[in-house]
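Students often ask what a holo structure prediction actually looks like on paper. The answer is less mysterious than it sounds. You provide the chain, you provide the ligand, and the output is a string of discrete structure tokens encoding the 3D arrangement of the protein together with cytidine-5'-monophosphate.
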Amino acid sequence: MGVRVRVPAKINLALKVGPPRPDGFHPLATVYQAVSLYDEVHASWANPEEFEVSVSGEGVAQVPLDDSNLALRAARLLARTHGDHDSLGVRLSISKAIPVAGGLAGGSSNAAAALLACAALWDLDVGPDALRSLAAELGSDVPFALLGGTAVGSGRGEEVVPALARGTYHWVLAFGHLGLSTPAVYRRFDELSPDATVPEIPADLMNALRSGDPRQLGPALSNDLQPAALDLQPRLGLLLEAGLEAGALGAMVSGSGPTCAFLAADEADAVELSVALSTDGLCRAVRRATGPVVGARLVG
Ligand code: C5P
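The corresponding structure tokens follow.
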């Protein structure tokens, strides 16, 4: 009984970051891509005003189960704004494959999935625009997790527009031994980049996406947060080099890291690359994924 939603991880094919705004957030010009590494959120009825969450799978020990849990906050926000809060309750059960604090928007994707699952479970009259604005309130990456595909993000990342992109790309994701705190990475970015300017989407990346050719996309990948992530975890530099030596067309830290994303020419190359990276001891685990894939969707 209940509702199940599947939601993908994201990587940033470009992440251009400007100087901090008065509210502390950074203006971004980013290109998101949703990739086939999924968490699932199951929502079932609980007594009125009972909001509970349980988590299984990848990195469970690090996921808070109290009211700071982003999926729980999403459920409460939806109940408060679009339902009769006193009569609603939910039991969320999250099954995780996306690493926690990995730079893949794991927490944000769980919040997006919780919004969708609760809207369906409670049979609320809430349209896509309203869901998107609740998503933006919950976090910068949450609206993209609803949308999926390949999209350009602006504002603090919460304003998303689908991008023209051809083809399917083969990625190898290498998970770090330790997570990285997103605010800490942004703080180090500020220290390392006192002259940051207004961010712009790189034209070569958009051209590469239109071509559908991974050989064009590889050298066009970029991440302004990468120097900050490498500064906090210098061994990530060795991991990126190892991937390029093993034949990756492009390599970068994903978002605020520490997950590194490697682009392969095709599925066979991705298999070879993932074997090479899993045997060199520089990362905790390696997963293959393709992108783009759709955003959060009901699956039962
Ligand atoms: O929006 P979200 O809650 O995911 O952001 C987490 C943290 O990352 C923020 O509190 C902020 O420190 C940092 N951040 C930022 N600029 C952005 C997005 C996130 O400084 N555009």
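The longest strand covers residues 28-45.
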